[in-house]
Write a structure and sequence with these properties.
The structure is a single chain. This protein is an alpha+beta fold and 337 residues long. It contains eight helices and 20 strands. Helices cover 20% and strands 27% of the residues.
């Protein structure tokens, strides 16, 4: 199925008519959070949150449609399962008569992924106009149709493949509540007011491999998988701390369990009673500061100590840890944290 060498080239216009979205009279004449009146997602050229920027009372795009950031979005494609309002800098892909299959979630997500593979061709300096989009070549798994004497996309095979990827849906007992962060007073706090900034003991990977596998994370400077490369039967650092990469981009993680570490892993040990929820909240804020660091300006301990972050406060001007706990607990699927 994924032997792409055997996939066939097609142009987007072979299966889709590409239309343009429409600007809402005023850019912000829609709400950020869904309410009783504004129920339709507003789709922009954004590459986050499935391109949803807010909600509107009307729609210009039917459900089960692939949408793509156009003039400004660099060809970032998404699948929209609900009716939505697509803004003018995005494009709507409407199946034409050659699309001999019912568009559904599986096919839509697959196509959106394939379209994104073409993003490298476009940027602000070479934004995709309608002609570029229609003539963009994509590769799809195909079968030879003897009756027609040509290859056609294997839509059934694509659907079956996508269904094989789905796991069981997560069930949550949390009733999501959208909390307006602007309704809370925030105040800056210096990192050293909250944490003791120290290094960690460097443990070479070869040493850990000789010790053997276990339950304790091996935390590195990588920015994926919470910084964890593997698990071994050895630890040097106590958990319930925040770690920060001081080699590359200053990526920050919360480490709940005892762990060992590679070099360039700095440790922020709390001076207060830090819970997991509070740790994750602060990690999110610290990662907003990654723009300050790069190879030429690494996040060493001295630089980390100079950082400040804004935190919500109570009526006495103290950090409102109870509010932070409540905020995290009201996030969707927070019962899986």
């Amino acid at each position: 199925m994924l032997d792409t060498d055997k996939w066939i080239n097609y142009k987007i216009k072979d299966f889709f008519d590409v239309t343009r979205g429409k600007r809402i009279v005023k850019d912000r004449d829609y709400v950020r959070a869904k309410d009783e009146l504004n129920t339709y997602p507003v789709i922009t050229a954004s590459s986050i949150n499935n391109s949803v920027d807010g909600y509107y009372y009307d729609y210009n795009c039917e459900e089960n449609t692939v949408v793509c950031g156009g003039e400004a979005g660099g060809f970032f494609a998404t699948f929209q399962e609900e009716k939505c309002w697509v803004m003018d800098r995005s494009r709507i892909f409407i199946p034409n008569k050659n699309f001999k299959f019912k568009m559904n979630k599986e096919i839509g997500i697959f196509l959106a992924t394939i379209f994104r593979k073409e993003m490298f061709k476009y940027s602000y300096g070479r934004s995709p106009n309608p002609r570029h989009i229609e003539n963009t070549v994509i590769k799809l798994p195909s079968l030879y149709n003897v009756n027609l004497g040509k290859y056609e996309p294997d839509w059934d095979g694509i659907e079956s493949f996508m269904k094989s990827l789905w796991g069981d849906w997560l069930n949550t007992n949390v009733e999501f509540e959208n909390i307006n962060l602007n309704n809370k007073f925030w105040k800056p706090f210096i990192i050293t007011d909250l944490f003791e900034v120290t290094g960690t003991k460097t443990t070479p990977l070869e040493v850990l491999e000789n010790i053997g596998p276990g339950k304790f994370p091996y935390v590195t400077t990588q920015a994926r998988n919470n910084g964890v490369r593997d698990h071994f039967d050895y630890w040097t650092e106590e958990g319930n701390v925040i770690t920060m990469d001081s080699a590359v981009l200053g990526h920050t993680t919360y480490q709940e369990e005892n762990f060992s570490a590679s070099d360039h892993v700095e440790k922020l040990v709390p001076k207060f009673n830090m819970t997991k929820n509070i740790g994750l909240f602060i990690v999110t804020l610290l990662n907003k500061n990654k723009f300050r660091f790069s190879y030429g300006r690494k996040a060493n301990q001295m630089q980390i100590r100079k950082l400040s972050i804004n935190l919500p406060i109570d009526n006495q001007g103290n950090i409102d840890f109870a509010w932070i706990e409540d905020f995290i607990n009201k996030l969707q699927y927070s019962d899986y944290i």
